[in-house]
Amino acid sequence: MMNDYKDFNRVLRSALVGEERSKVKLLDMLDPLIRSSIKRYCPVFNEFEDLYSDGRAIVLSCIESFDNKRSFLRYVESYLRYYYLDTYKYLLKVNSDVHEGVTYDEEESLNIFDSIDAGVDIEGDYLEGERLGILKKAMDSLTPRQETVVRLFFYEGFGLSEIANFLGISKWTVINLKRNAINNMRNFISCYYK
């Protein structure tokens, strides 16, 4: 295992100075990260080849823009995560726009019972959607920096120290931003949704 880390670091150092063979080797070493990121953040498997190619391009871009201030793997992982989440949202929107334009003949029209799965909790899904809508409005009421801290902490699973390093601020500033953001969200929700 230790040799794997040493090999990775050696290849990374060579890739960062521009050695082409090391970049290719680094792409091969990060192949599992690219594939797992697609599976986790953008599971649209009929687009897998394009998503995979984009992931490799992102890794190459990260090699060029890496600044040695944080872990390279974290850096690549966060770029892949955000790219695939944004792509997933885009693909869902495009697919829903395509399906809205489809019309059916009377013979082909779907019966409501054909489209409802017996195991679906419609009321629960509706209430969950309402809660998420309220949460989104509360998030929109935050300052940009508070929103970033909340997203990194709760959605991305970053620790307070990681957020501080990522944003280039002190850990105590992150703690205060998080505390104030949560208080602001509570106040927003209690004022507008009693």
The gist of it:
This is RNA polymerase subunit sigma-70. The protein has 194 residues and is an all-alpha fold.
Summarize the main sheet. Answer: none
Classify the fold: give the CATH topology of the largest domain: Rna Polymerase Sigma Factor, Chain: A
Mean pLDDT: 82
User: What is the chain-wise order of helices and strands?
Assistant: HHHHHHHHHH
CATH class wording of the largest domain: Mainly Alpha
Structure characterization notes:
By secondary structure, this protein is mostly helical. It has 2 domains: 1-96, Orthogonal Bundle (Rna Polymerase Sigma Factor, Chain: A), CATH 1.10.1740; 130-194, Arc Repressor Mutant, subunit A (Orthogonal Bundle). Helix content is 76%, strand content 0%. It has helices at residues 2-16, 20-29, 31-41, 48-65, 72-100, 112-115, 122-140, 144-155, 160-167, 171-192. It is flat and about 60 Å long. It starts with a helix and ends with a helix. The model is unreliable at 102-118 (pLDDT under 50).
Write the layout of secondary structure elements.
Elements: H1 2-16, H2 20-29, H3 31-41, H4 48-65, H5 72-100, H6 112-115, H7 122-140, H8 144-155, H9 160-167, H10 171-192
